[in-house]
Amino acid sequence: MFGKPQHTSSGTLSNSFDRRSVLIGGLQTGLGVLLAARLGWIGLVQNAKYETLAESNRVNLTLVPPRRGAILDRNNTQLASNRIEFRIDIIPERLVDSDATVAELARLLAFTPVQLQDLEDKLDKAHGYQPIEVTSGLDPEQYDKVLVRLPDMPGVIAQQGFTRWYPTGPSVGHLIGYVGPASAKDYEAEHNPLLVTPGFKIGKDGLEKQFEQDLRGVPGAQRVEVTASGRFVRDLEKRDDVPGKPIKLTIDAALQDFAARRIGLESAAVVVIDCITGAILAVVSMPSFDPNTFAGGISRLQWKMLNEDDHIPLLNKALRGLYPPGSTMKPMASLALQSHGVEPDERINCPGGYQLGNRFFRCDAVHGAMDMRSAIEHSCNTYFWSMAHRVGYDAIAPVAKLLGLGQQFELPGSSQRYGTVPDAAWKMRRYKQEWSAADSLNASIGQGYVSVSPLQLAVMTARIASGRNLIPSLIFGQEKLAGPALPFTPEQFAVAHDGMFRVVNGSGTGVGSKLDLPGIQMAGKTGTAQVRALTARGTVGAWKTRDHALFVCYAPTDAPRYAMSVVVEHGTFGARAAAPIARDVMTFLFEPEKAMATLAALEQGWGGTPSERVAAKYSSYVNQYGTTAPKVSDDDTVDKAIGRAANTEAPTDKSAATSWPEEPSPAPEAAPSPEPSASPAPSAMPQ
Amino acid sequence: MSRRIVPEAISREPWHVLVPLLALNTFGSVVLYSAAGGHLQPWALLHELHFAVFLMMAFVISRFPRDFFKQVAFPVFGTLVVLLILVEVLGKVSGGSQRWLNLGFMQLQPSELMKPGIVLALAKFYDGLPPALTKSWRAFLPAGALVGVPALLVMAQPDLGTGLAITFGAAVVIFLAGLPLAWFIGIGAAVAVAVPVAFNLLLKPYQQARVAIFLDPESDPLGKGYHITQSKIAIGSGGFWGKGFGNGSQSHLEYLPEAHTDFAFATMAEEWGILGGLFVLAVFLWVLRWGMGVSRRAPDRFSSLLAAGMTFTIFFYMAINMMMVMGLAPVVGIPLPWISHGGSSMMTNMICIGTIMAVDRWSKHGRSLG
C-alpha cells in the first residue's frame, strides 16, 4: 500500500471499476428477477382477472330482436307478419364524425334531399344509445355497398333482421296500429336493453301497443368476436330468439281488406259483425295511414300529408267517429213503440210533416197512410214523430241503449268514444236546459243530440237481426256470451225485420242496393244525418257541409248471419253513398269473386288500391313540398293524434230547428211505390 | 492482425452469445409473424433480414482496432451532434417534430446512434483523463457537457425515452469511471428535487399524461391509460403456458396498441405465456452477463468502460421496455431489442454487440501478445 488514500491511480480506478461493475451487474440481475416476479404476478396470480378482461374485450354480446308475434285473422291469414330484410341503423352515441357519416350514407344509399332531411330529423331527436333507422328493405346490392364501408363509419350498423309487415297496409292501420322504434319515454318506463337494440320495434298504437308483451317474444343473443374498433370477426355462439305469441282475431282479413278498398275515395267506416257470435269480422276506417311506412319513424311529409287531409286519416271512424244515426234508428224505434203498446198495423197519415204546437216538422214527402212496416220502408218521419209523441221519448231512449247505442264495449286496441243517447236528465246535466217536446221529436229520428259510433250501429243491427243481446268481440276464441235476453217478442222483431226487408227488397229507400245473389237477400235501413242545420238540404256545396250517409243491414234475411253498418262522412244520402258499399261488402261475404270484379272496375277509376293511392299521394307531396315541410313534433304528440283523434261534432242548432229533412224516396223507377213520391229525387241513385 | 488462420478467427467469435441472440431474434420473428396474422410480411421477414445485415455489421465493427475506436470517438460524436441539430432544424422547417433523416436508402435516426455514441465519447474522455484528476471537477464538467448537449437535443425532439437512455447510459460510464460516490448521491438527491419541477416545466402535456397514467392507469382505462391496461391484460391472460401461437386475441383483435413495436413483449407473452417471458429474460441476462464479463476482462480503462457502457445501453432498452409493458414504468417509446420490429433500434443494439465483441477480441489479442 503506497500513496495516500486520496491519491488516485489507474490501479485504484481499476479496483473501483471492478467493484462498481459488480454493482451494475447485480442491479441488472436484480431487475431481471424483479421483471420475472412481475411477470409471474400478472400471469399467474392475476391470471383469472386478466383472462376475464381479455374475454370481455374479445366477445361482444348482442341481443337479437325477437320475431314479433303474428296477428292472424280467423282463418290464420296474417294481418301482421314479419319479413326478412336488410337494414341500416345508426347509434348516435357511437358516431365519430356525425356529419361525414351521414353524408357518406346518403351518398351510398342515393338518398333524396327529403330522405336526408328525415334522417337528420331522427338524429336530432335521438337520445344516446337509442338506435335510429336509416333505411330498411334494402336490396342486397345497396346493402353490400354500405357493408364494405362499415369499418370507416363507426356507429353505423348494417344487419339482416325481421321487420313488421302488414300485407294489406292501410286496411288494417286503425285496427292493428303500428310499430316503431322505442322512444326515450318507453325506455324510461322499462329499462330493458332490448329497447335500444337496433331493429327492435315496439307497438305504438292499437293492438300492437295493447298486446306488446305477448307479441314481443324473447330476444335471442349472439356472441361475436369483435376487434377493438368494433369490427365483426366471427360468430361464436348463438341463442335463438323465441318469437312472440301470435294473436288471433275474429277479423276476416279478406273482408277487412275488401271493405277498406271498397270505400274508395270516401271517408267512411264499415263494421261487420257475426250475428251468431257477436264476433267482429271487419272494422274498417278509411282513409287510413299505411302502418308499413310508420315503422322507421314518421317523416315530415307523411305527417303533413296526414294532417292536411280533410278526410282525417288519423281518426278511427269506426270506433271513435260519432255521427247522428238518423233514420237507421227507426227499426230500433219500432221495437220501442211496440213494447209500449203501439200496434204495428195502426196507420198514421203523413201529410208531408207533423204539427207540434205552432211548429210544423217537415217530412221528406207526402207519404200518405203509413203503418209501422211501411214507415220503416219509406223512412216516414211523420209516423215516428206521432208515435214517439204518443208513447213519450222516455220509452225510446232505454231501448236505444239496450240495443247498444251510446254503449261502451270492451274491445282491445283503439279506445272508443261512445256518443250520446240523450234524455231529459242528460240535457239538464249538460246544457242546464229542460227537455223539450222538439228534442223528443229530433231524438226519435236519430237527430239532434243523438250521436253514435259505427260500431254501435253494427251492434244494434246485429241485435235486431238475431234477436239476441250479442256482445262484440275481437279476439278469436274469446267470443263473449250474449247478455240478458232482449225484452221483445219474436213477433215484435218480425215487424222490424219486415220493414228492413222492404227497405231493400220492397219499394223502400235502399232498393238500389238489393243483393244480386241467388237465394240470398239483405235487409237494411238507410240513414242521412245532418251535419249542420241548413235551410237547404246538405247534398250540394262544400264537401264538409254535406250530410253523412248511413246504412245498416244484415243478411241473409231468413237466417241472419252478418250484420253491418256503413257510415260515409258527408256522403249525402245513405241510399246513394252508404248502401252500395254495404251491398258490395255483403256480396263479398257470399261470392267474393263477384264482389272483387266490381271492385276492380271501381279501383281503376280511383287510381289503384289504398296503398297505391297513399304512395302516389306521398310522391306528389315530395314533388310539391320537398324539404319545406315543418318538423314532426315529438312521439307523444303523434301517439295522441292517432290514438285520440276525434271528428269534430257539429251539433245542429236544435232549438231553432223547424225542419228535419229526411231520406228522399227511392227513385221512381226503382219500384212501384204505393205512396206519392213528391220529394226532390237525388240526382243519381247508385246501382 | 494477420488473416492466416481463418477457421480460428471464426471459432473465436463469441458463439455462446450469438447463438442465443439469434434464437431470441428468431423468436421475435415468430411473434411478429403471428402479429401480422400469420404472414411473413410486413415484419417477420424484414426483422430477420435486419438481424442478418446488422450481425454482419457487428462482425465488421468487431474487427476494428482499439486505436481506431479512440481516433473516431470524438469525430463520430461531433457528427452525431450536428445531425441532431440538423434534424431539429429540418423538423422546424417542415413543421412538427421529426426524429429522422431520410438518407434515401434508409431513415437514419441520429438519436438512436447517439446511445452508443455517447458511451464511446465518454470512454475516450476518461481514457484520456489523468487518473489523479478523476476526483476533481475536471472529471465531471466536460463529461456533463458531452452528455447534456445531445440529451437535451433529443428530449427537445421531443423523445423522452431516448433522452433518458442517453443520460442513463452516460451516467453508468461516469459511475464506472470512478468518480466520487458522494457526487452521484448528491446528483441523485438533486434529481429527486428537480423531477417535479422538470415534470411541470420541461415535459410536454402528452408526456405528463403518460407519467400520470403510469401512476394510476385505471383512472382512464379507455383513454390514455389504455396502452398499459391492454398490455397487462395481454400478458396476464396468457398465463403460464400462453394462449398458443396465433391465438392472441388482444393483439389480433387490435386491442393491444403497437403490438409489433413497443408492446411486442405483450404480444409474445399473450401467446407464449410466462414461459416465453422467462426465455426472453434469460437470453437478455445471458447477453448482459457476457457483456459485463467482457468489460471486466478488458485490457484497459477505455475498453472496459466502452464494453460496460454498451452493455448497459442494451440493458436500459430491455429494462424500460419490459417495465413499461408490465405496468412498472410509464409509456415511453422504447422498443424491446431483438423482439420489437424496427431497424434503428436493431442497428443500435447490434453496434453495441459489435463493440463488445471488439473489446472481447482486444483482450484476447492483448493476452496472446502478452
Describe the structure.
- The complex is a heterodimer of chains A (687) and B (370).
- Chain A is of the alpha+beta class and 687 residues long.
- Chain A contains 25 helices and 19 strands.
- Chain A has two domains: 60-248, Penicillin-binding protein 2a (Domain 2) (Alpha-Beta Complex), CATH 3.90.1310; 253-643, Beta-lactamase (3-Layer(aba) Sandwich).
- In chain A, strands 2, 3, 4, 5 and 10 form a five-stranded mixed beta sheet that branches.
- In chain A, strand 8 (220-226) and strand 9 form a beta hairpin.
- In chain A, helix 10 (253-263) runs antiparallel to helix 22 and helix 14 (330-339) runs antiparallel to helix 21 (490-505).
- Chain A is elongated.
- Residues 1-5, 533-537 and 649-687 of chain A have low confidence and may be disordered.
- Chain B is an all-alpha fold and 370 residues long.
- Chain B has one domain.
- Helix content of chain B is 72%, strand content 1%.
- Chain B has helices spanning 6-12, 15-35, 44-63, 66-94, 110-128, 137-155, 160-176, 181-201, 205-215, 226-238, 249-252, 264-297, 301-325, 343-369; strands spanning 101-102, 107-108.
- Chain B has a two-stranded antiparallel ribbon.
- The two termini of chain B are 14 Å apart.
- The mean pLDDT of chain B is 86.
- Classes of the chains: A alpha+beta (687), B mainly alpha (370).
